[in-house]
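quick one, 69 residues, struct below
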Amino acid sequence: MLAAAEAAAFEILITTDQEIPYQQNRNGMRISIIILCAPTNRLADLKRLVPAVLLSLNSIEPGQVIRLD
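---
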């Protein structure tokens, strides 16, 4: 999935899958990952992470993984 996203010119993947860094071979990849760590995947829980996501989008480096909770 990450290889396909990177091939499609995506720079950042935002996900709730906390295991994705361990499930995918990221060697040599430049796509960055922002992982949303909330109590549930319900919109009400994820919405509170939006300000942190916006800040992260301005500072994340290629290939970096950031966990937000």
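Residues 2-68 form one domain.
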